[in-house]
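Weekly sync, protein design subgroup
Attendees: M.S., D.O., the rotation student, P.L. (late)

Item 1: inverse folding check
M.S. brought a backbone from last month's batch and wanted to see whether the design step gives back something sensible before we order anything. D.O. pointed out we never logged the input encoding, so this time it goes straight into the notes. Structure tokens as presented (376 positions):
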């Protein structure tokens, strides 16, 4: 019995030792295999991913770009008429669209106060003329006394001066009378040129001030179209090669035009510049106020345009991906006007360069690519 217990105590440690040795061996094999695999893996090069991109070859186009502006048919000369004196309007002789001739009375203001001024000036003239007659009689009488030596030269000079003062008073009163007569005539607003009434801004019973516009008359003669142009199109407008004018009410009529006048300052409300386009030999069917469309064709000049999808924008400067020897390079550009899904490139690109036109925000500098595409 004692021998059996002794053998059992010896066998148990041997089993633990045996299993421990097996565990150590397995661990050594796992570690050795991992190190060998890692060594073999690190020696293999990683294959670089080459992306397939859509591209085009940049080329210059010579197609002229047209711009169309809406406008209104206006007269070459428009007179904004106003009374030269203040007063209450008591008569209006014209309507919108009335054809008038030079000298026709268009409106009249109440002349009663003006008539009273004329009457007062006339009385002053009569009074001054009476004083002049008295001064003239005294001067003749004292001239005779001077010749006989009855009075001194100093006394005679006093009467001479009185006569000159009376003469000046007559001239002053006459001038005031003429001014009053003119103002009485100004109570009638007359047309200075033949034309058509296009605007009336005052009615009977309204009190107007001197210089306030009440009627606009478009003079007979030349017709033109007024359009509004943004400031970024002014230079192109000055270099326009051809101007064509069409009319909404006359679809079969097209008239040649010429840029006559460009406003030096922008309109305060619209921030656009008023431009007048003269009509060359317009037909009689064209009437004032018609809606017109002015098409401006720029001179044919080579220009580079690229699709909008080719522009890479990550800041204030637009850029494009240029492919050089199958490698991407990000190049900044200066852009111009927009087209139908395209944008004009003013600088930064040369003809013959190949650029990426799709997926530009998924690429990176120096990346190798494969491409396909055609010239733009």
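Designed sequence read out in the meeting:
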């Amino acid at each position: 019995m004692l021998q059996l217990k002794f053998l059992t105590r010896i066998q148990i440690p041997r089993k633990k030792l045996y299993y421990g040795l097996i565990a150590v061996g397995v661990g050594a094999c796992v570690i050795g295999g991992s190190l060998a695999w890692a060594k073999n893996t690190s020696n293999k090069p990683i294959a670089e991913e080459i992306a397939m991109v859509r591209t085009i070859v940049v080329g210059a186009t010579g197609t002229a770009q047209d711009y169309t502006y809406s406008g209104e048919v206006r007269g070459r000369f428009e007179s904004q008429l106003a009374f030269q004196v203040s007063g209450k309007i008591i008569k209006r002789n014209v309507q919108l669209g009335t054809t008038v001739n030079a000298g026709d009375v268009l409106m009249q203001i109440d002349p009663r106060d003006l008539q009273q001024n004329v009457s007062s000036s006339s009385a002053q003239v009569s009074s001054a003329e009476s004083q002049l007659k008295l001064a003239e009689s005294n001067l003749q009488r004292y001239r005779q006394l001077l010749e006989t030596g009855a009075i001194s030269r100093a006394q005679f000079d006093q009467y001479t001066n009185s006569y000159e003062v009376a003469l000046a008073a007559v001239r002053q009163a006459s001038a005031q009378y003429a001014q009053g007569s003119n103002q009485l005539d100004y109570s009638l607003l007359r047309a200075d040129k033949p034309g058509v009434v296009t605007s009336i801004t005052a009615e009977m019973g309204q009190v107007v001030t001197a210089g306030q516009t009440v009627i606009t008359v478009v003079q007979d003669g030349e017709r033109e179209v007024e359009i509004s142009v943004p400031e970024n199109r002014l230079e192109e407008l000055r270099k326009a090669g051809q101007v064509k004018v069409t009319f909404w009410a006359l679809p079969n009529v097209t008239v040649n035009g010429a840029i006559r006048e460009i406003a030096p300052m922008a309109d305060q409300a619209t921030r656009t510049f008023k431009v007048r386009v003269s009509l060359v030999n317009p037909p009689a069917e064209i009437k004032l106020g018609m809606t017109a469309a002015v098409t401006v064709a720029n001179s044919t000049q080579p220009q580079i345009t690229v699709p909008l999808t080719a522009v890479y924008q990550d800041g204030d400067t637009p850029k494009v991906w240029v492919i050089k020897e199958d490698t991407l390079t990000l190049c900044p550009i200066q852009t111009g006007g927009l087209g139908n899904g395209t944008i004009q490139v003013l600088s930064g690109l040369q003809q013959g360069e190949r650029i990426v036109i799709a997926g530009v925000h998924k690429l990176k500098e120096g990346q190798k690519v494969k491409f396909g595409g055609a010239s733009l």
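Discussion: The chain has four domains: 1-31, 53-63+302-375, 68-76+222-298, 82-190. The CA atoms of residues 82 and 211 lie 5 Å apart.
Action: P.L. to compare against the previous round before Friday.
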